[in-house]
Amino acid sequence: MRKGGAPAASPAFFVVAPGSVAGLVPWLPTGWSAGGPWWGPVRVAGWALLGVSAALLLHAFARFALHGLGTPAPVAPTAHLVVTGAYRHVRNPMYVAVTAVILAQGLVLARPVLLGYAIAAWAVMAAFVIGYEEPKLREQFGQEYEDYRVAVRGWVPRLVPYRAGHADRSW
């Protein structure tokens, strides 16, 4: 994808994919109304998690467009392996962020159904990563991806940022 096309296509994919998974689907059972009384600090934690997660999601999308020269959509993949920004800490920051957004909504709205949905959504995303994304990335980027995969965990962020091109297996 041309550098100019990725920033234009990413917002559309953002609305369709995370917008559906973390927006439309959670709205269906909740209507965005609170489920009942909930301990105040839990809601405050939910709002904080929502803010951080939304920022992470936007950051990860921007990295795909600006550094990878592509989109997260399988039909318009990146031309370059993205290992900058949040990707230096975790391989799947978009999926981590989407899961955290759903968890945050469950905390803010006092809706345990969203906590269960977050687990189910994560399981589907993890299966997609293992069954489709990782094999595609191995095929497209070869040893570069394999070095990155070995050094950076998929779901739990590492504290020390990964530096591409270095023999780094520390977690």
Task: Give structural notes.
This protein has 171 residues and is mostly helical. It contains 5 helices and no strands. It has helices at 5-30, 40-66, 93-109, 112-141, 143-151. The radius of gyration is 17 Å and the shape is elongated.
Looking at this protein, list some descriptive labels.
elongated; 0% strand; 171 residues
Quick structural gist:
The protein is mostly helical and 171 residues long. It is built from five helices and no strands.
Q: Assign a percent range to the helix content.
A: 55-70%
The description of the largest β-sheet is: none
Structural class per helix/strand content?
mainly alpha
Q: Helical element count?
A: 5
Average pLDDT over all residues = 86
What best-fitting shape do the alpha-carbon axes yield?
Answer: elongated
Order of helices and strands: HHHHH
The rounded Rg comes to 17 Å
In whole angstroms, the N-to-C terminal distance is 33 Å
Number of strands: 0
Q: Roughly what fraction of the amino acids lie in strands?
A: under 5%
What number of structural domains do the residues give?
1
- pLDDT below 50 for ≥5 consecutive residues: which ranges? none
Write the layout of secondary structure elements.
Elements: H1 5-30, H2 40-66, H3 93-109, H4 112-141, H5 143-151
Helix pairs in contact: 1-2, 1-3, 2-3, 3-4, 4-5
